[in-house]
Amino acid sequence: MLLMTVISMVMMDQVLTVEMPPDLCGFYFKYFILNCGPALLHPEKPSADCCKVLEDGDADCLCKFASSPILPDLGIVKEYYLATLANCGLPDCTPPPI
């Protein structure tokens, strides 16, 4: 539910209105949520825009993020997150245990 709130706020441009340095694995979290949100909430193929955002990121960091304790707090389903990475052509990863 939190992820949907964040997506809504980003779409209404109420969050992160000032461009800042990349803040998550080498890309902007705002664009990650906006472009990849649907694939992180439901088992669907990610958009080309989502894959472009992920391509700009650090693959090792993205893999480690799968074990982040904040993932569930954001409403991101770990299996969908990993499937999104795989569907965007990132190398398979086995996230480290928490």
From TrEMBL:
Lineage: superkingdom: Eukaryota
Every Bifunctional inhibitor/plant lipid transfer protein/seed storage helical domain range: 25-91
InterPro entries per record: Bifun_inhib/LTP/seed_sf (IPR036312), Bifunc_inhib/LTP/seed_store (IPR016140)
Signal peptide coordinates: 1-17
Oxidoreductase among keywords: no
Family matches, as Gene3D superfamilies: Plant lipid-transfer and hydrophobic proteins
UniProt entry keywords in alphabetical sequence: Signal
UniProt protein name: Bifunctional inhibitor/plant lipid transfer protein/seed storage helical domain-containing protein
